[in-house]
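Model it.
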Amino acid sequence: MSLLINPVHCYAVHPSDAGRIAYIDGLWNPTHTLPYEGEIITRPFLVDPKTRQPIPVRVIEIQEHLEIQPHTLVVVVTRSDQCH
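Modeled.
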């Protein structure tokens, strides 16, 4: 991964977990630190779609997208009870 100055980071749900993790727009906070691959995190905007409660998720990949302006890091997550 390259060294990026003030990259934007966003979250994406792994395709195998589509429908098992919901993303709530408007709750992401830029003060959240960038997690590392393999870390289990809980964020208020990544929730169980039925209960709407935050759930622990595992960071399985961080993708660097230099073609997007501003430069963007995409944090790909899956439910923490899943292994990929």
